[in-house]
Amino acid sequence: MTENIQQRQEQQADIQASLSAASSSTNAATQMAAQEEEKVYKNHKFLAQLRDSGLDEEFRADLGPLLAGAHVTASRRDDYERYIKWINENEAERELIRNTPGRHLRQRPTMQMIAQETHRRDDRQWTPPMTQDERGDHRNAMEAVTNFQSLAVEGRGIETVGTVQTSTEVTRQTDEEKSLKERVEGVYR
């Protein structure tokens, strides 16, 4: 009989240990989730960061409305992504062609000024041909524009902002519940 009691006590101790381990792992998971929510909560400038293309000022000035923040919060059909891809690639190639003079103009900067219609104008400066690095940078910038504008496809950008807003509200509510719980516990201690 004492053996049965000892076995039961051992079983209860094993059950208690497994419950304790499960409880500690649940607490750890809860703490990790709370930390993740806290990171989201602290990022109150998320929409502004999402609307920022991340390109240098030089490219922002040249690309202007292509980098408007409205592209992030717009909602377009799913074929818009393909459409802007081809439009932006075409625009990139056009800009490269405009800034790549032919063989005869490359050797004669004065003729290039005439071709650019800057020879009699004080308000416009002659632009030299693009270097190979500048050409690559321009192509990459237009690819970034395409990626930026693709946030409008099926409302991806606005959906992301909504998800972050929801997470922020849930976190605030949880924080308020915690502070209320702490106040109640303080009264009853």
UniProtKB/TrEMBL annotation:
Region (Disordered) residue spans: 1-37, 115-137, 164-189
Species in which this protein is naturally found: Halogeometricum borinquense
Designated name of the protein: Uncharacterized protein
Basic and acidic residues biased stretches: 172-189
Low complexity: compositionally biased ranges: 1-34
